[in-house]
């Protein structure tokens, strides 16, 4: 039985490999919604067999999809825990959620949660997403999602932070899927980058105490620096000690720099196309 007063929202697209593990990790919940982008595999069958409610919507971008899931579905509880199918909630995180939501003086409307990335069977303790906070637990009516790719979670109330982390398995569907997703993400990231770099650099946000806004501002600064993919590799592998994550860390850092290079090339492609120039 769910004693947390928490509904769970899982976004899916052909997630038969990931969904069973995700559903098992939130087995304590008695209100699970799977919001699907018209999968063609066994995603719907797996979701319904686990007792989840199943909805579908044509995908346009990640912010629109998650906003639709939050606004167009009736939930049993005022709090919604938002997950992707390749993510898992640990018992420690489930307990912390239970504890913070049981407090009567709680005026927080959005909790940000850290993530542990698993890569080739190893937890990336240095070069993964250990310094990134994800807005994943929100009070309905007080949160909205912005940015088409790598979404930003906003609230009209107070933001809180949880200490326990959820676990992420980005390679669980295989390297082919990972590269296909990077190809798709890099186009979306390039389009967002082109829009965002048209504005002046938000210098004040670089000094803010909000880690999410600071990371966003630093990201915009990084996109204006030459040789950025090479610098990204140096940052995650050397400055953040990715080398301490062993061979998995080296593989991750190389793939991360390749992804950043794909973004840069697609920005250049867009700019040449808009001028009518061939590649």
- Residue share in helices? 40-55%
Please describe the biggest sheet, giving its number of strands, its sense, and whether it closes into a barrel.
9 strands, mixed
Number of domains: 2
CATH H level, superfamily name of the largest domain:
Spore Coat Polysaccharide Biosynthesis Protein SpsA, Chain A
Q: Report the structural category.
A: alpha/beta
SSE order: EHEHEHEEHEEEEEEHHHHH
List the helices and strands and how they pair.
Elements: E1 6-12, H1 19-25, E2 32-36, H2 43-49, E3 53-56, H3 62-72, E4 79-84, E5 87-88, H4 91-101, E6 108-119, E7 122-124, E8 134-139, E9 143-146, E10 152-155, E11 158-168, H5 175-196, H6 203-206, H7 211-222, H8 228-239, H9 246-274
Parallel strand pairs: 1-2, 1-4, 2-3, 6-11
Antiparallel strand pairs: 4-8, 5-11, 6-7, 6-8, 9-10
Helix pairs in contact: 5-9, 8-9
Please outline what is shown here.
The protein is α/β, with parallel strands linked by helices and 279 residues long. Helix content is 41%, strand content 23%.
Structural overview:
With 279 residues, the chain is an alpha/beta fold. The protein has two domains: 6-168, Spore Coat Polysaccharide Biosynthesis Protein SpsA, Chain A; 175-274, no CATH class. The protein is built from nine helices and eleven strands. It has helices spanning 19-25, 43-49, 62-72, 91-101, 175-196, 203-206, 211-222, 228-239, 246-274, and strands at residues 6-12, 32-36, 53-56, 79-84, 87-88, 108-119, 122-124, 134-139, 143-146, 152-155, 158-168. Strands 1, 2, 3, 4, 5, 6, 7, 8 and 11 form a nine-stranded mixed sheet that branches. Strands 9-10 form a two-stranded antiparallel sheet. Helix 5 (175-196) crosses helix 9 and helix 8 packs antiparallel against helix 9.
């Amino acid at each position: 039985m769910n004693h947390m007063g928490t509904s769970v929202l899982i976004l899916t697209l052909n997630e038969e490999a990931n969904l069973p593990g995700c559903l098992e990790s939130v087995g304590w919940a008695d209100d699970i919604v799977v919001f699907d982008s018209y999968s063609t595999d066994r995603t719907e069958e797996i979701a319904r067999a686990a007792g989840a409610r199943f909805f579908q919507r044509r995908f346009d971008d990640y912010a629109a999809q998650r906003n639709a899931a939050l606004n167009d579905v009736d939930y049993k509880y005022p709090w919604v825990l938002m997950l992707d199918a390749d993510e898992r909630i640990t018992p420690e995180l489930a307990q912390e959620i239970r504890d913070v939501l049981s407090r009567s003086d709680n005026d927080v409307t959005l909790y940000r949660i850290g993530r542990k990335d698993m890569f080739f069977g190893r937890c990336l303790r240095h070069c993964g997403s250990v310094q990134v906070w994800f807005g994943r637990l929100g009070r309905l009516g007080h949160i909205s999602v912005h940015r088409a790719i790598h979404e930003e979670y906003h609230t009209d109330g107070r933001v809180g932070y949880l200490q326990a982390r959820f676990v992420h398995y980005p390679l669980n569907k295989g390297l082919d899927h990972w590269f296909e997703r990077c190809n798709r993400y890099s186009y979306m990231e390039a389009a967002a980058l082109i829009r965002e770099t048209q504005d002046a650099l938000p210098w004040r946000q670089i000094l803010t105490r909000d880690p999410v806004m600071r990371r966003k501002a630093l990201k915009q600064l990084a996109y204006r620096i030459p040789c950025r993919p090479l610098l990204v590799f140096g940052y995650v592998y050397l400055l953040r000690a990715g080398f301490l994550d062993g061979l998995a860390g080296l593989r991750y850092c190389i793939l991360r720099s390749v992804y950043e290079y794909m973004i840069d090339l697609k920005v250049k492609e867009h700019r040449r196309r808009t001028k009518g120039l061939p590649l």
